[in-house]
Specification:
Layout lengths: L2 H11 L11 H6 L4 H10 L5 H10 L12 E11 H17 L11 E9 L4 H15 L9 E6 L2 E6 L1 H21 L12 E6 L6 H8 L8 E11 L6 E5 L18 E4 L11 E6 L5 E5 L3 E3 L7 E8 L19 H22 L2 E7 L4 H5 L43 H16 L4 E6 L3 H13 L8 E3 L21 H6 L23 H18 L4 E7 L4 H9 L6 H9 L6 E7 L4 E5 L16 H6 L2
C-alpha cells in the first residue's frame, strides 16, 4: 500500500460515524448490501436512484478497494448555462483545435466557490441540505446578470468578475462553507481570491495572441443562467491521467484489464515502469479493477470526465424560484439576444473559413512495411530456389517494383505490405471526406514512403493531378540503418517506370550523396530543419503540403516549423517507438503573426489490431 493511501486510511478510520439513514439507503439494505458499501455506492453515483447504486455495486464486485474507508472529495462550482455556456464550449473546441490542449480543457467552464474538501459518505446528504438552504437565502440578492471582463497574461486567459458582484458570490461561498463545516463535520474552505472563469491556462506563450483573438469572439453579455453545482471526485486518483477506451479489449492474460468502449481509466505516469512498450497499467473507473491494457486502444480524457455531479441550485433571476434538475433548462432569450447569437454564429463560420484558406503542413509516417511484419529477412521467405519472387503470405505485395541492379536491393528498401497500402488509401479517403486540399506532396526516397504518398493521393482522387517530389533530405535518422550504410533507393526513372506519379522536374534540396551514415542526432535535427524551411519557401500557395516520411520525421520537422526546441536525444527513440503507421502531425500557418502552430490533424490516426500467422494443421489437428 502506498504511503499516501495509508495516511488517508488512518485519517478516516478513526472518525465517528453518522446516524442518519436516507430513503435510498433502506432499499439497498433490504437487498442485503452492507451499510458502508450501500452508502459508498450511493455517493459514487450521485445519490440519484437505487438502480444506479445496485449497478455500481455489481460492477465493482471485484474491486480490491471496495471496503476501503476513503471518502470522496467535493467542490462547489458556479456554472453558466444557456447561450454563454454554448459560446464557451465553442471556444474550448476551437482553442484545442488551433493551439492544442491546455490545463483549462481538463474541466468544464466554471467559477470556483469552494475548492475540494472531504466529507464522509454518510454525511453527504447534509451538503445537499446546506446547498438548498444557503441558495434559498441568497436567491433574492443574487445578481440578475454577472459582468465579466477579459484578462490575459502569458500563461492565463479568462474572465474576471466585477468586484461588487464577486462580493455577493464570496458571501454565498462563506455561508455554504460555514454551514457545511458545522452540519456535515467537514472542513470546507471558501474561495476568497479574485473570482474568475478560466478560458486557458498553462499554454505556450506563442499561443497567447491566438487564444485572445478567439476569446474576443465570446460575448460575455450572452443570456445566461447561473447554477451552483456540487461535484465529487475520487481523491486517490487526483494526480493521475485519465484515458478513455476507444474499443473493447478482452484480456489475454490474468494481469490484463477488461475494458469496454467508453470506459475511463486512471493511469499514474509515475508507475509505468512495469508496463511493456505500447502498454499501460491503469485502474478502471467503471469496475475499480487494475491491470495492463494496450495504449493504442485509448485516447486522453479530461479530468472532470470522472467526476460525479450530486446536486445543484439554479439561480432563477427571472422568477426567483428554486428548481433542482439534472437537465439543461429551457432558456427563452429575447429578440436582441437571438440576433447576437446569429451574429456570433456567422462570425464563427467566417473564422473557420479563414482557417481553411491558410497554408498547412501535414507530416505523416509511412504505412506498414513488410519487414515490420515478417522481419528483416522477409525477402528470403518470398524467393523460389531459382531466385524468383512469389507471394508467401497475402500481406506480401503481389509483385515488387523492377529495379535496375537486383531484386535483392528491395531487402534494404522494403515496400509496403498490402495492409500498408490499404491503410494509406484509407487515410486519403479520410482527408477527402474532410475536404482537405492537398497542393503539394513531398516524400522520403524510401520506397515505403513513395508508395504511401501514392496511395494517399489515390484515396484523395488526386493521382496524376499532384506529383510526388522525392526529397532525399526527408530520409530518417541514418544512425538507425541496420546496415550502417545508406540504402540504394529506386531512381526517379525507376519509380516513373513503376507507374508512380513522380515530379521529374524536382531537384531535391539534399542530394542523396549528402546523406552520411550514422549521422549525429544534432546533424539529423539540423537536416530536418533545413528541409522543412526549403519546402515552405518552395510552396507559397494556400493549401496543405503533405510530407511523407518516417516515425523519426514527425518531431524534428513539426518542432522546427513551429519554433519549438528539439527533443532531448535521450528520449527521442522511445518517443518514435510510440508513433504508429501513418501517425500524423499538422501545422497551420498564422500568417498575420508570421508563425506556424501545431493543431489537431484533419483526420484521426488509423487504429487496428494484430493478426498473427495461422497454421491450421498445428492448431486444429494436433491433440
Amino acid at each position: 500500500m502506498a504511503v499516501a493511501e495509508a495516511q488517508l486510511y488512518s485519517k478516516v478510520s478513526n472518525k465517528p460515524r453518522g446516524r442518519g439513514t436516507s430513503a435510498l439507503l433502506e432499499p439497498l439494505l433490504a437487498k442485503g448490501f452492507p451499510a458502508h458499501l450501500a452508502q459508498k455506492a450511493l455517493v459514487a453515483t450521485g445519490q440519484k436512484t437505487v438502480e444506479d447504486a445496485v449497478k455500481w455495486l455489481h460492477s465493482h464486485c471485484n474491486d480490491p478497494s471496495l471496503d476501503d474507508p476513503i471518502p470522496q472529495e467535493y467542490a462547489l462550482y458556479l456554472c453558466p448555462r444557456g447561450r454563454l455556456h454554448s459560446r464557451l464550449q465553442d471556444f474550448w473546441r476551437e482553442s484545442k483545435r488551433q493551439c492544442g490542449k491546455n490545463r483549462a480543457h481538463e474541466v468544464f467552464p466554471h467559477v470556483t466557490l469552494c475548492d475540494f474538501f472531504t466529507c464522509e459518505d454518510q454525511k453527504v446528504e447534509f451538503l445537499y441540505d446546506v446547498l438548498k438552504k444557503v441558495g434559498d437565502s441568497f436567491c433574492q440578492i443574487f445578481p440578475p446578470s454577472i459582468f465579466l471582463t477579459l484578462h490575459a497574461s502569458p500563461s492565463y486567459l479568462g474572465f474576471f468578475i466585477d468586484d461588487s458582484q464577486a462580493n455577493i458570490l464570496k458571501d454565498f461561498a462563506v455561508a455554504f462553507s460555514t454551514e457545511a463545516s458545522a452540519l456535515a463535520d467537514c472542513h470546507v474552505k471558501p474561495s476568497l481570491k479574485q473570482f474568475h472563469l478560466t478560458l486557458a491556462h498553462r499554454f505556450y506563450p506563442h499561443h497567447q495572441k491566438t487564444l485572445e483573438q478567439l476569446a474576443k469572439c465570446i460575448n460575455p453579455g450572452e443570456p445566461c443562467q447561473w447554477v451552483a453545482a456540487l461535484y465529487s471526485r475520487d481523491m486517490r486518483f487526483v494526480h493521475y491521467q485519465r484515458l478513455r477506451a476507444l474499443f473493447q479489449y478482452k484480456p489475454q492474460n490474468i494481469d490484463e484489464l477488461m475494458i469496454n468502449a467508453g470506459d475511463l481509466i486512471y493511469v499514474d505516469p509515475r508507475q509505468q515502469s512495469e508496463a511493456g512498450e505500447g502498454w499501460v497499467v491503469g485502474t478502471s473507473h467503471r469496475t475499480g479493477c487494475r491491470g495492463f491494457l494496450p495504449e493504442n486502444y485509448t485516447e486522453r480524457a479530461h479530468e472532470s470526465d470522472t467526476w460525479v455531479k450530486h446536486r445543484e441550485y439554479v439561480f432563477d433571476t427571472a422568477s426567483r424560484s428554486f428548481t433542482k434538475t439534472e437537465k439543461e433548462p429551457n432558456v427563452k432569450p429575447n429578440g436582441e439576444a437571438h440576433n447576437l447569437s446569429m451574429s456570433r454564429s456567422v462570425t464563427n463560420v467566417v473564422s473557420l473559413q479563414n482557417a481553411a484558406l491558410r497554408r498547412g503542413v501535414l507530416v505523416m509516417s509511412h504505412g506498414e512495411r513488410v519487414d515490420q511484419v515478417f522481419g528483416k529477412s522477409w525477402l528470403q521467405q518470398c524467393l523460389t530456389a531459382d531466385g524468383k519472387y512469389y507471394r508467401a503470405d497475402l500481406n506480401f505485395p503481389s509483385s515488387l517494383p523492377r529495379q535496375k541492379d537486383s531484386m535483392k536491393q528491395s531487402e534494404c528498401d522494403p515496400p509496403l505490405s498490402c495492409c500498408g497500402i490499404f491503410q494509406s488509401k484509407l487515410i486519403g479517403e479520410g482527408l477527402l471526406e474532410q475536404e482537405v486540399t492537398v497542393s503539394s506532396v513531398y516524400s522520403s526516397p524510401a520506397l515505403c514512403c513513395v508508395q504511401t504518398a501514392q496511395h494517399v493521393l489515390q484515396g484523395l482522387k488526386l493521382n496524376q493531378k499532384v506529383r510526388i517530389r522525392v526529397e532525399p533530405g526527408l530520409f530518417e535518422w541514418t544512425k538507425w540503418e541496420a546496415s550502417r550504410a545508406i540504402p540504394k533507393f529506386m531512381t526517379v526513372a525507376e519509380l516513373v517506370e513503376a507507374s508512380y506519379d513522380i515530379d521529374t522536374s524536382y531537384r531535391g534540396n539534399f542530394p542523396l550523396s549528402s546523406l552520411v551514415p550514422s549521422e549525429s542526432y544534432e546533424d539529423y535535427v539540423s537536416r530536418s530543419s533545413a528541409v522543412i524551411k526549403h519546402i515552405i519557401s518552395a510552396c507559397p500557395c494556400k493549401g496543405v503540403i503533405l510530407i511523407v516520411g518516417h516515425g523519426s520525421s514527425l518531431a524534428p520537422l513539426s518542432r522546427a516549423l513551429t519554433g519549438l526546441p528539439s527533443r532531448d536525444s535521450r528520449d527521442f527513440a522511445q518517443m518514435v517507438q510510440k508513433i504508429p503507421a501513418l501517425g500524423m502531425c499538422f501545422c497551420e500557418e498564422q500568417k498575420e503573426e508570421n508563425k506556424w502552430q501545431m493543431v489537431n490533424p484533419p483526420v484521426k490516426t488509423l487504429t487496428h489490431g494484430a493478426n498473427a500467422a495461422f497454421n491450421w494443421r498445428n492448431t486444429i489437428m494436433e491433440d
